[in-house]
Structures
1.
Amino acid sequence: MEYITAIVKKVRPFVSILIFFGVFTVVFMLVSGTIKYTLPFIIGIIAASILEKPTEALIKKFNMRGEIAAIISTLVFYAITVTLLVVGIVYFSSEIKDLATDGYEYIYDNGSKIGNLVQNSLSTFENIDESVLDTLRSNINKLISDASNYILELSGSVVNYIINIISALPYIVSVIIFAILSSFVFLKKFIQNSYSQNKENKIKEESEYDKYIKIILEIKDVVFKYIGTYSILVFCTFIITFIGFSILKIPYTLLLSFMCMILDLLPIVGMILVFLPLMAIYFFSGKYITVIFLIILFSVIMITRNILEPKLLSASLELSQLSVLIAIFVGLNAGGFKGMIYLIALFIGFNFYKKYANFEGNFIECKDKIKNEEQ
């Protein structure tokens, strides 16, 4: 009997992990599969989590009712957010269209010059076999032609994307309306729970249900705090980059700043994927002063980020850089953007699972030891 008990104790952690993976995968598939219908409520709970503290501050400062404060904060939040999104999407789409058009015209006008330059450069290698040179020339010419076609397709894709947004306008409007309503409902509930917990400030034995609710709320707070603080970091990156590019009068400022903001989420590489090509372009164009200022701008962003990150990210999800790289690479190759989100969420969920599984295990062990000592 003791042998069977020992085997069960050894097997139980692996079974628990398999159950966790199974439950997480099913939940993720349900959420992602029904996102079209649940999107307003997901946006609502995210917005309510963001607005909870500002709304409580509004109630305390102006001594107003919770419902009125929730209405004011919700309407102000969505008015600012929707305005910025509309302006950003219009300006962003315009820059992508201009970039695609200008890029196509540049390659169309200078394609022959680029081809001749490449052929003349290859001709200087006299010791290379002529068949190898012919292959290189044909491949380079094909690359130039493909780049031209790709830029033309990109321009058409932007136009189609704008048309699709316009055609989906009724759905977008309905999502915004229901997101506002659900944000108000969630926010009011959060505030009521917060005040009821403050009033009931007495020690009582927690039931199993209360423990699970407490764990879920703690996970929610940590995840949203992490997302919020990281959003502040990347937004600071966007603002500094946008101001710097505007001062240097670099074309497509908004597009490049947005790319820096997105790439800032990637560990190790990040914004260097934008700054390095820009530095190379201006260096070969003979604009060395611009290159120096780009290096200074990049250094300022890195220093600012390293100062703010330790202060803001007090609640860390303990995701290593290797985990993020694996999630991005494997996820994108296996299942595209959805696969990447799945793996990142899986790593985050597994960190919480390990934390609370160890907590529960230690709690049970301590309880058993106390019982044995009493006996």
2.
Amino acid sequence: MLELRQLEKRYATGDLALKGVSLRVEAGEVLGLIGPSGAGKSTLIRCVNRLVEPSAGQIIFDGQDITQLNAAGLRRVRRQIGMIFQEYALVERLSVMENLLSGRLGYTGFWASWLRRFADDDVAQAYSLLDRVGLSGMENKRADALSGGQRQRVGIARALMQSPKLLLVDEPTASLDPKTSRQIMRLILELCQERGLAAIVNIHDVVLATEFLPRIVGLRAGSIVYDGSAAGLDHAVLTNIYGDEDWTAITQRMQATARGLTDHDDRAARDRAFVAAA
């Protein structure tokens, strides 16, 4: 599905954001990307679809090296790679429906896009996705009238309008409260499972990552320092990723989840366990 081979990114300032990153993601696999600020997480995600141009290395997606594609080839590949942004990246003055249908622009001709004329099948798909993400009946609301959680749901649905094979998810819960964060993570995971999508989820909340994401990749200073199961994130591993700190509260919360409090419908019991562990 996706393979990064010795990926590097050096910015014009001389800063090396990624240092020989090699990573493989199988079809249908969802992994979490964690690490401190400045570790290269967002840069890595943006290199995959060349929103950021890598300085060296290869990005192999479905057998093609994305780094070698011309503009037309890159547009074709980007249809298959959905992006979900931390700040939602919605057009605020447009309606929910118009924002969703923008996910079909890669498949629509210039004049049809300009005139906002979309195929009946695309409109039907948009209504279906709105229902799936819990926004049925909100198609005519302006994006700037939505809550943060609702905006993120629109962003998720818009990405799925592309019919992608891979989702790149950049800090999907950074601006959300804890309850909404779990709802959004649950929705992303359910949709990936339903559609057989692979996903890379850049997430800053370690406990949330271990609750929902079975495979965790830890970045530090542009290099992968951990690639393994969520259960393997012990004190030593967290110190290697983030630096020296007292990780007792974090590891206790993760252990509470590992003891079986992972039923996403039993939120009250899980929250009580987390509070007790802290």
